């Protein structure tokens, strides 16, 4: 049996890498758009009239959020640069693997960025004690949608070879 065959599709290793690359780039486009909009918004906050009046805790949360947003942006744009720099080197399967890892790291960083941004916004919007609980609920929702359900489905529907 040829390498890459017997995986549910009749494709070579190169064809599989091409398909996986196309799928990955489509997925990254969605995350890139979201993180770029969020990051752009975060960059403007420091220039608002309200920023000087934030508590030191809120300023620290803001700085952490901006750094997380920058890191998420880098990780989610990374696959494009990676592909461009290794294109034509006949290492697409390895490139897809590394780009996939960068994308996963970017999603983790995006989760952290969105959580920190939500915490900051809710702390500024209200001083109620329920804010940490509300943020924890949203984190649980993100984890369920982004990781738990996909992993549960993967484990439930993966057959052993």
UniProtKB/TrEMBL annotation:
Lineage: Bacteria, Bacillati, Actinomycetota, Actinomycetes, Kitasatosporales
Keywords annotated in UniProt: Membrane, Transmembrane, Transmembrane helix
InterPro entries assigned: DUF6328
UniProt source species: Streptomyces phyllanthi
Descriptive protein name: Integral membrane protein
Transmembrane segments: 28-48, 60-82, 103-124, 130-149
Keyword match ATP-binding: no
Keyword Membrane applies: yes
